[in-house]
Amino acid sequence: MIKRVLTYTIPADQGGRTVEEYLRGLGYSHRLVVHLKQTPGGILAGGESVFSTYRLHPGQVLTVTLTEEEPSRNIPPAELPLTIVYEDADILVVNKEAGIPVHPSQGHHGNTLANAVAHYYALRGEPFVYRAVSRLDRDTSGLLVLAKHMLSACSLAGQMEDRRIRRRYLAFVRGLTPDSGTVTAPIGRAPGSVIQRCVDLEQGEPACTHYSRLLYNQKMDLSLISLSLETGRTHQIRVHMASVGHPLPGDFLYCPDYRSINRQPLHSWRLEFCHPVTGKPMEFTAPLPQDMAALLPEGAEETAIWLGAGQARPEGTREALSPAPGGCAPLTPSAAPLDSDS
Predict the structure, then answer these.
(1) What does the domain layout of the chain look like in residue ranges?
(2) Helices 150-161 and 30-37 meet at what angle, rounded to 10?
(3) Is 263 exposed, middle or buried (0-12, 13-18, 19+ CB in 10 A)?
(4) Annotated region Disordered: where (predicted)?
(5) Under 8 Å between Cβ of 27 and 151
(6) Can you give the pLDDT at residue 135?
(7) Is residue 137 among the annotated active site residues?
(8) Which residues 6+ apart lie within 8 Å of 274 measured at CB?
(9) CA distance linking residue 171 with residue 327, whole number of Å
């Protein structure tokens, strides 16, 4: 059984609110509150079981117990590469290698990130439920965050919906790009293909990609660019950059040119979000993988160091950060969990 206990002291300005109103303000979904109502001892106020309609008093101690009886039993453990950047009782941040799908799918049942995570927890003798909050294509490397329980999943999903999870990518593209640019072409499914996407001005979904050039490898005719997205369409970066004449080499769908690299050189380099329980800003970076670092021009040592190329492990979290636009919703000290048991 998976168990997480969170204890809150009700601040003065929250007195009179119902349990559900208070918890919803901390990122709990209505569905999660219903789950807690149906869990014996799921919601305690002053040590006594209460309904979600119970009105709280200033200084009162509210205890929430998150339990899940059924772990992810249908994901077989597999000993695969797994680089853990950060872990606590609520989240797991990993640096995914290229070539590993995030989720099991047809043709990929035992070689995914889910199988690697299952193996990691099996070695520790801990149950787990696999919840990857964001996705990366199979051949895209880099950072993503996993929620370890239902509250983390609710909070991070809400941040995704409000675009408060910020990610910055690095990519090598063919040709010399402008110093910076924005691509806003709508993206739709390519005719006759289940996988491939294309620019579709009539029926495509809105999409927006911002990029800036960091350096240019004249010998290989490749630009290293930094990208951020305002939308999250399938293959968005790959389609948008190809549409403006700067495809990612090694991309089997949009630029099958394998002379310099055998996969699309796309890396989720930087990840920022608010911790789903404490509300603290979190920031992580992952070093440029070796196959992409090999595309840097000679004399780019400073850039390589800045990008962390060749480091064994990514940089960890830094807590003293400015909140993202729209802000984290940090919990006040009196509302932050006083203790936690797992």
Answers:
(1) 2-69, 83-307
(2) 170
(3) buried
(4) 312-342
(5) yes
(6) 86
(7) yes
(8) 155, 159, 164, 280, 281, 282, 323, 324, 328, 329, 330
(9) 27
What pTM value is reported for the model?
0.85
Among 21-25, 66-70, 135-139, name the one with the lowest average pLDDT. 66-70
How large is the average pLDDT for residues 114-129?
93
- Kind of pairing between the strands at 141-147 and 187-189: unpaired
Amino acid at 148: K
Give the torsion through C-alpha atoms of 46, 52, 57, 62, to 10 deg.
Answer: 40
Asked whether 171 and 223 are in contact (CB, 8 A), the reply is no
Segment 277-297 shows an average pLDDT of 95
CATH 3.20.20.70 is the classification of domain 2-69:
no
pLDDT tens string 172-211: 999 999 999 999 999 999 999 999 999 999 999 999 999 9
Q: Which two tokens stand for residue 108?
A: 């990929």
Q: Which two tokens stand for residue 314?
A: 């990514």
Q: CATH for 83-307, among 2.60.40.2250, 2.60.120.330, 3.90.650.10, 3.30.2350.10?
A: 3.30.2350.10
Q: Residue 144: what are its φ and ψ, rounded to 5°?
A: -155, 160
Phi and psi for 23 in degrees, rounded to 5?
-70, -35
Pick from 281, 315, 300, 337: nearest CA to 6: 337
Q: Nearest-CA neighbor of 263 among 254, 274, 272, 275?
A: 254
Cite the beta strand spans of 21-147 per DSSP E: 43-45, 48-49, 61-68, 83-87, 91-96, 141-147
Q: Do the beta carbons of residue 111 and residue 78 sit within 8 Å?
A: yes
* Residue 305 contacts residue 179 (beta carbons within 8 Å): no
Torsion angles phi and psi, residue 255, rounded to 5:
-165, 75
The residue from 88, 90, 137, 162 that is catalytic is 137
